[in-house]
Each structure stands twice: as structure tokens, then as C-alpha cells.
Write the C-alpha cells for this entry.
Amino acid sequence: MKRIYVWLPILVVLLFWRLSLNKDETTVFRLPLNDQWTFHAAGDTIRRSAEVPGNVHLDLMRHGLIEDPFVGLNEENAQWVGETDWIYETVFEISGRERAHEQVRLKFEGLDTHALVTLNGFLVLQADNMFRTWTVDVKEFLRVGTNRLHIHFHSSAMEDSLRAAQLDYALPETRAFSRKAPYQSGWDWGPRLVTAGVWRPITLEAWDGPRIDAMQIVQQSLSDERAELLVHLTLNSEIETMAKFSIGLETGETLARRTVPVASGKSTVEIPVKIERPVRWWTHDQGHPHLYSVIVSMKSEDGARDRMEKRIGLRTVEVVQTADSAGASFAIHLNGRPVFMKGANYIPPDSFMPRVTPKHYRALVQSTQAAHMNMLRVWGGGVYEADTFYDLCDEAGILVWQDFMFACAMYPGDSAFVANVRQEAVDNVRRLRHHPAIALWCGNNEVDEAFHNWGWQQSLKWTDAQAAAVWEAYETVFHQTLPEVVAAEHPGAFYWPSSPKTGWGHDEAFQSGDAHYWGVWWGREPFEKYDEKVGRFMTEYGFQGMPSMETMSTFADSADLTLGSPVLKAHQKHPFGDANIAEYMARDFIVPQSFEDYVYVSQCLQARGIGRALEAHRRNKPYCMGTLYWQLNDCWPVTSWSSLEYSGRWKALHYEARRMFAPLALLHQRTENSLSVYLNNDSSRRVSGKLILTLISFTGKVFKTWEQSAAVQGGGNVRLWSENLEDVLAGHEAGTVVLLARFHSEDGKEMHRLIHLARPRDQRLPKAEVDWRIVTTGERSYIELHTNALARYVCLSSGNAHFEDNYFDMAAGETRRIEMTSTLNTPQLEAGLRVRHLAEIR
Ligand code: BMA
């Protein structure tokens, strides 16, 4: 009790000190321009209220002028929106005091895309890149009283055609002329919804004397004793003055104080600081993602104050490419430790980005982490994500492979285009470089591979000179401009020109660099090929699965829920997607007659195929040091390669990824006549214990047992056991037995998995009875399951409930307890609960 007397005064002092720090921390006046917006089509006289940030599709929907393009066949009816010019207007009030500031500017964080901006009738900005931040000095155009801001968005589709007509050869995609999110033009998983509008905030800023415009924190060295950082500030001041700078951490610790002269105009200040005994940032699977907030405050002698805060992580990331007999490695070393990267490709979580909330991002990042992923690739056909997304990755300990926004197209190389791209790169590298999550920068998605392998030279009839010009433009952007920007703005960061390095039709693709393997799916090769087509770092491969019935009911009436219905076809964007699903399903499963079962089996199929790839990639560690499947998420409800539906609901694949990506995993490999079991350990600790394998019948009869001791180093991967398949089967038919693999570690933990010896369609699955009951302990609800015989792909569903595991196999006699989370109460959950498994399909 006495202790409180000691602590209380200290706490009070700390509290006051914090409050005084927060008080008047900046004299920069900021006015967000979010209110009183209207929009109308050019030539139209009716102005309607608009939401900013937002976009024209969202505004049209809100006014009932278009129907939700995600529903039914509405996408088609919304195409005119992208071919129209749109005008957004607002008014805002400015007082004499605000107008009197020495500097006044408008800051546009995202205009989508070709925008003419006038303020009180004066043209202040001509923007043509949705990824750039534009700042414009507007003091001379600003009035005391009411000001009118007017933005005319030209149709991008029209702009693209105009620009394309000026080039004497055709580029494969006219969308490439606009610096606009490529996926808006339609993708093989996304609708064509070419939108327009103020998609990120506009702010009026006014100030006197110096302000901090930008802050860069360069990590100069990092050891266990100390981190040496250089804090680089960009200042903006109308006048020459002296200013005091203080740099500290959020804990209150001061790292440096300086008083320096500030020049007029833009100037820079560099202040070195040290953090003693630094705590490093790790991915969540390797340690703790520790973050530091570095706070700079400034006070000038004429009374200007400003403050900036950046949250950083102290870590090193290297991409190590060591030549070897096959080619060269491609391994991410985090803080000097090679770490196997597990994850997926991330696309924009909505066709309409302004409506994505922090809650959406949080759910996505949580699902990523829950599946034991430590890396996401922000794919180049979308957008440079919102700050919130990277903040969440920093906190969750997830690395980001960051593409620049170029995908599956060739781009112009004229000087205006290149200058525009350069500035886009500068803006985004500056915005994102302090995030410890950013592992590397990659120039584009599949542009190099497309130029060399997709036959455009022939299909577009380029002359040799034209093809050379197209390639020269490529080199200017991806081999010159972007690496220059990364080197200058994010010193030490790794730049990789294109993902993949080499197209999958070439052997080299699997010998060095990163690889996309699309022989399964695009090439219709069997899933077994995944065992062979293992590269050094797999950045793409995938297989589609249909979304759940719940998600499909958000866009289709029950009458439309049949294979091949026009509404379903509109929600399958791949040219032969449905045919592919059908073909692969028939290879491995008994194809169900009922639509609902077909949807379920399509998910089992996707999980089975990609699960095989994940297993092959991991098993080949350290030859392969990363695997990112295509794709994590969806931008609308659709049949796609995603493991998370648009709603965030987990498909069977996401559960499979969670099992396959577990830090410690039992993996298997089956060849024509042998079977092997591996123990793969991605943690940094050595694990040892006992491996027990039993060959059992589907009703649980034990035929044969193998037992041996087993150990694997931290980061290791060992083949523990290998047998001739004939000896494993011991005279039994492959479709009637299963191998139960169990590992008991010395610290008392147990894990197990079932290794199947035949495809599901060739297994004589019994009509297992899976009993269940709901158990509630305290706040938590569980479903407890028991089966009397082998049950495959046991699928649990109840409304929006989330199950910690799902679509799993259960051996005869097995009991499992699965946690459920839901907004429903237990009786509701129980009433809606459905448990099924593969032997029940019709
Ligand atoms: C990859 C991606 C995407 C595409 C996917 C599936 O090449 O980069 O362009 O959606 O394949 O076809």
C-alpha cells in the first residue's frame, strides 16, 4: 500500500508532462475538406450530394441511380459510369486570420484520376495519377469568406483511347496509359468498374514560419548494443529563422535536442540519434514485432511549432541470392536469420476502395496471421495500400512484398509518363518506407514474363523496331526509374524488377529468382506437378474455389444458384474457370449432383490442390525459401483463387493453409512407389520427440505400426521416414486404409495428421456418423465432435460463425473440440449448425 505514495506523484508528473507535450503541438492550421460536396455528370444540371473521400459509383448507388454492381447482372449496366465525365464541387469558409498565413496549400492524397481542379475559377491543378499526392500553393486564389473548389474528372477510358491513338503501335492494354488501379478495368477475378472521384482526403493547410513537411528515419547500423539512426527532416518555411528540435520516443525518453538555423524555402535537417539496447522487430512466427514511435517536435524562435511521429521497427531484411549448383537461392534473411516466407498475394479488398474501413483491414490481417502467414505480396494490379494496412502488418509481424502498381501490360515510355511514374514512386516510397513490414520493392507483376512469353509481338503485329521501343520503355521504367527512386528514397531496401523473374515455361524459372507456376490451372496440368515445379521462392500459383452459399446469396437469387446460370457466369471472370473446376473435380472427387454439394466440393478441391503445393514448397526448404499462393482475398463476391471470400469468410483453402503453415508440421511426399514423412520446423527452437505411424482401416482397425525417435533443428526440415509403398500398404487396397502420423514432442505436445493413400474418389468412404455437441466454458463456445469412422472434409457452418478449424479429416474414434466465434448466442448457433462430410454428398 505504501508504494502508491511513491508512485502517485511520479504518475501525476508524467501525466502533466504528456498533456503539455500534446498541447498546441503544431501551429499548422488544417481544414479537412470533407463536407458539402455535390456531384453531377458533365452536362447535367442536377447536383446531388456526394461523400468525400468516396467515388462516383458509391455516390450513384447512394442516390439509387445505379444498382449495386456486385448483384446479379448489374455490373454490365454500370459501364456507362466509366465513360462519363464527372464533376465534384464543394464550398468552404476561410476567415481573415486563416487567409493571412504566409503559406496556404491544398493537399490532395488521392484523385482518381484525370482531374482538372479549379479554386474560385482558377485552374490550380491538372492531375493524372491516382497514386500521387498533390500539393498546390493556393494563397493567391483563396478568398476570405466562401471558396469554391471544383474538380472535373475526365473519363479514364476516353483519356486512354486518346493517348493510345497518339502512339504509332498498339499496346496490349489501353488501361496502361492511365496511372490508375489496373484491376478497375476488370480482371480474371474482378468486375470492370472504372471509377472516378476523390478517393483519399483533401486538406487545406496554412502556416507561418517553418513546418515539418517530411521525416525519414534511416537505420545506419543495428547491433545488440545499439541502433544508430539518422533522422532526416524536410522543412518548409517562408522565412529564415532558428528552430529547436527535440527527438524522443513515446516512452518519454529524449534521444536528441538541437537548435539549428532554418533557411527559407525547402530545407533539410539531419539529426543522428541512438537507441541503446534496441529491441528488434520480428515477424510474429520468429519473435515479437516490437515497434518504436519516434517523435520529433520543433519550435522556432518566431513561435511556429510542429510535430511529426513515425512508428518504426528495428530490423534488417536482406534478400540473399547465393549461387549454387542449381542456380541461385532467393531467401529472406530477417535480422540475419533465414526465414521461410509463408503467405499469399493480396489484392484490393474492394472494387470501391474508399469504403474499406480499418475494421476490414484488421480482419484481413488477423486472418493472415491466424493462418501462420508471415508475408503478403501486395500485388501490382491494385493500389498502394492505405497507411492503416501497413500499420496493421507492422503490428502483426507480417512482412510485405510490395509491388509497384504495374501488371500484365506494356507501358508507354515517353518522358511525361516516366516523370509521372517517378513522382508516384517517390510519393509512395516516402509514405511507406518507415514501415518495418516493407521487405522489398518489386517493379511489376508479370510484365517481363508477358513481354517474353505471351506472344504480343505476333498478336499486335509489332515490327522489330516497335518491339524494341516497347522494351526500351520497359527498361526505362523498371530498370532505371524505379530502382533509382528506391535507392535514393529507401536506402538499403531491395529492389526486384519484376515478379516472376522468368516465365514458368522455362526451366530457369525454378532455378533462381522468384517463380509463378501456372501449369496447374492455366496449363491444366495435374496437382501432382506441384511436387516437381518447385522454385527458389514461389510468388504465385493457385486454383479456384467457389464462394460459400452464404456469399453467393448476396448476389444471386435462389433461382440463379445453378451451374452455368447467367448470374453465376457473371461472377466467374476466368475464360475457362468453370470448365477447369469441373475437369479437376472429376479427376479427384465424385462429382456431386446437388449445387450446394458442388460448391462444397469445389472448396475441398481447391484446398486439396493448393495444400499439395504448400506441402511441396515447404518440404523443399531450404531449396525453396518462400511460398505465396494466389490469392488471399477478393474485391467482390466471386468464384476465384482466393482463400478468403469478399465477406472475409474463410474458404476451405484458408483452413488448409493454416494447417500447412503451422510452425511445426508433419509433411508427406508420395511418389509412385514410395511414401516419406518429414518434420518441418519454422520456429527457431530445436524440437525432438517420437514419430508414430499406424496404418488403419477407415473404421479404425490397426494393421501396422512404425515408431522412431525424431528431431529437427530450429528452421530445419528433415525426412524422418521413408518406405516402399507396397510395404506400407501391407497387402491392403489404397482406397481402404489411411496412415495416421503422430508426433509426440519431448515437452509433452502432440500433433497428428492423416495421410491418405488414394484420391478421395477412389477411397471407399464409409457413411461415418459424426456426432456433435456444443460446450460452453466461460466466454468461449466449442463444438465437440466425435466420429465412428473416417470422415473427410468435415465442414461446420452456422450463420456467420467462425470456426478455428474446418474442412478437416477425422479418423475413426477421434474426438475433436473446435472453438467457435460468432455474434450469435449458443442456442442460435446450435439451431443453425450444420455438420457434413464428404461421404454425404449427393
Ligand atoms: C496471375 C496474377 C493475376 C491473375 C492470376 C490468375 O498471373 O498475377 O494477373 O489474376 O494470375 O490468372
